[in-house]
Amino acid sequence: MFFFCFFFRVIFWNVALIIDDYSIIFGYRVSQMTKTYYDIEAVTKLLDEKERDLELAATIGKQLLEKDQQLEEKIEFLEQELVKTNDMSFIDSEQDVILEESSAEYMKASNNEHIFTSKRINEINFETLNEYKRKIEYLEEENDQLRNKADYFEKETADLEFKESSLITNCFKEIEESQEALRHTQNELKNKTNECFNQQEEINSLFGQFGECNMAQHLELHQLFKSANHVQNLCKTHCALKH
Fold first, then answer.
1. Per residue of the chain (243 residues), what is the pLDDT tens digit?
2. Is 219 inside a domain boundary?
3. Residue 113: left if φ>0, alpha if ψ -120 to 50, beta else—which one?
4. Within a domain: residue 151?
């Protein structure tokens, strides 16, 4: 009797540990869900974790069913062993009662745990999915607003880039025109400078020619003056000889 009580206690204790572990994990997931509201990546991550939690719940349920099956097999084995011991009918009867009661309690506890776990999972799933749905709708709306703003800013940026490109093109055009005008002015200035230089050389040549002509005229006038004085002196001498 002590052996059966200890055996069932160990089984219930293992089942309780599994359920407690699942409750702790699920509680951690719920606490993470409450902290996540605006991060779409975190929402996606929690959805993945939620899927893993559901897989974990299915695994736990499968483990419970396997343990239940193992327990039934062990009970069946013990019953067969007890049937073989006909000389311990009283003990067999007592053990049968204990086994039946323990089996009934275990089945009841297992069913209650399954019902509680399934109900809790469904409640959490419903609340979580609704919360995710609200968050996703909000994030989609916000994403649409951001997309509209991005389109607006993209259009504004394109307009500014077009205006900037036009302004740069006009500036380059004006610079080229200014450079062309400057080159034309420089060429005109160069031509005028050459023309002035040629005129200056011509003036210098004329001044040289004028100086030469002036010198020749001066010499000619000097010779004429000397000739006139000589003639005058001859006339005076001739007049003096006549008297």
1. 444 444 444 444 454 444 455 444 445 444 544 444 445 565 566 666 666 766 666 676 677 677 767 777 777 777 676 666 655 554 555 555 555 665 556 555 555 555 545 555 555 555 666 776 777 777 778 778 888 888 888 888 888 889 888 888 888 998 999 899 999 999 999 998 888 888 888 888 888 787 777 787 778 777 877 777 777 777 777 676 665
2. no
3. alpha
4. no
CB 22 within 8 A of CB 60: yes
Please report where in the chains the tokens 């396997």 appear, as a residue.
Answer: 66
Terminal Cα-to-Cα distance of the chain (whole angstroms)? 205
Domain count across the chain: 1
* CB contact set of 120 (below 8 Å; sequence gap of 6+): 26
Residue pair 15/67 in contact (Cβ under 8 Å)? The answer is yes
Question: Within a domain: residue 234?
Answer: no
Q: Does some domain include residue 49?
A: yes
Structural domain span for residue 116 = 2-145
- Quick check: pTM over 0.85? no
